[in-house]
Write a structure and sequence with these properties.
This protein is an all-alpha fold. It is built from 4 helices and no strands. It holds the Pfam family EF_EFCAB10_C.
Length: 77
């Protein structure tokens, strides 16, 4: 059990040292702030409402959403 706690602490230290969580928060804010760019890229429709579900946007969640939308766009070709 000691090793698990140690690895978790190392992971926390790494995230803090490299400011990973700060970067993810910045990217999330940037994506929401640059809504017009999302529309231009076809990743957001004009009438779509961005909703905050109260959970942090993880990289995996973001990646899944972008992939889903890109598949929808390319499906017409």
């Amino acid at each position: 059990m000691q090793a698990r706690g140690s690895r978790e602490q190392e992971a926390r230290d790494y995230l803090e040292k490299h400011r990973i969580m700060e970067l993810l928060n910045y990217l999330t804010s940037t994506l929401l702030f640059f809504r017009p760019a999302l529309k231009t890229l076809g990743l957001l429709t004009a009438d779509e409402v961005l909703k905050d579900d109260g959970h942090a946007v993880t990289l995996d969640k973001f990646r899944r959403e972008v992939n889903k939308r890109m598949e929808e766009i390319w499906a017409v070709f």
